[in-house]
Write a structure and sequence with these properties.
The chain is mainly β. It has one helix and 20 strands. It is 6% helix and 38% strand.
Length: 323
């Protein structure tokens, strides 16, 4: 089991190192828990096929927008304890300013996709299909968020499963406004159908975060969330039965009690170092032939991904205001 996990980490490591260096690169020109299909099709993009997935990532905001404390997780994979924080090597973090400007102005219409895109009621980003996926990784900068009303939110994550299947193991970051209008930023993990669990890792706007979800052996998984700006990380092991059916890199409008929350204005989220292990082979998101997903609400696209960066390991998602 240790050898299998070590091999997976090594397959992803070289791809992540290149991706982290690209975290501050400009985004390319835009082309445009489980998914919630949207209907009718948006009117501000060309027609696209509706996805078949019906599961949704469950959130658990309290009346004031708080999250429940994380539940205990098994630690079968030798790693740091589930609540441990650790410093990485001094040369590991990609240092960025601790503050960032407010979200920049975003387009008012969705860019035209360069290839067919599926439509979702809560996801925007990319999904890779057509094989067994045993690891996924990605890096992004935690965005500043602008309120679109109380209990508005957005989550950025990578995961395995969930595109057309009810299982989904995922981890990422989130920015949301509670019922009192206060903004919160947090890191979290989730294994459907369990609700998400906040983890003991501080994140804030401007922080560069790298997330890796990897199968160790059978139903044993390792999840690592690294704040490359602060040099701290969270790592845990979980037991989870996955279909291994897909891999995702997503910005999401989370759900509470089956209701999709209003998506905050996050400006643009820039992903880099996006890699996956498919059928035992590590590859970039482009090599995995991942497919774009547009997020639509009330017949309009409100979040759209760009095409891939030149190295095939990155893209951006932009929030599109709807008049």
């Amino acid at each position: 089991m240790r050898a299998g996990l070590a091999a997976t980490w090594l397959l992803l490591l070289s791809m992540l190192l290149a991706g982290c260096a690209a975290a501050t690169s400009p985004a390319q020109a835009p082309f445009a828990g489980g998914q919630t299909p949207s209907a009718p099709p948006p009117t501000n993009i060309p027609s696209a096929a509706q996805p078949t997935a019906t599961s949704s990532r469950l959130a658990a905001l309290s009346e004031r927008g708080g999250r429940p404390a994380p539940t205990a997780l098994p630690t079968a994979i030798p790693s740091q304890p589930a609540t441990a924080l650790a410093r990485t090597g001094p040369d590991a973090p990609v240092l960025l300013p601790s503050t960032a400007p407010s979200p920049t102005a975003t387009p008012t219409t969705a860019p035209t996709p360069v290839r067919p895109a599926s439509i979702s009621g809560n996801w925007s980003g990319y999904k890779a299909l057509g094989g067994n996926f045993t690891a996924v990784a990605g890096t992004w900068t935690v965005p500043w968020v602008k309120s679109m009303g109380s209990s508005s939110s957005s989550s950025t994550w990578v995961g395995i499963g969930g595109a057309g299947y009810p299982d989904l193991i995922q981890a990422g970051t989130q920015g949301y406004f509670d019922g009192a209008g206060a903004v919160h930023y947090e890191a979290w993990i989730e294994t459907l159908p369990q609700a998400m669990s906040r983890v003991a890792l501080e994140v804030k706007p401007g922080d560069v975060v790298t997330v890796v979800v990897a199968q160790a052996a059978g139903d044993q998984w390792s999840i690592k969330i690294q704040n490359r700006t602060s040099g701290e990380e969270y790592q845990t092991a979980v037991q989870y039965e996955s279909s291994l059916s897909s891999a995702e890199w997503i910005v999401e409008a989370p759900s509470v009690d089956g209701r999709t929350l209003t998506l905050v204005d996050f400006g643009t989220v820039r992903f880099s170092g996006l890699s996956v292990v498919k059928e035992g082979k590590a590859m970039t998101i482009a090599e995995a032939k991942a497919e774009p997903i547009l997020l639509a609400a009330q017949g309009k696209v409100i979040a759209s991904p760009t095409g891939f960066t030149a190295d095939g390991s990155g893209f951006s998602v932009t929030r599109i205001p709807v008049p």
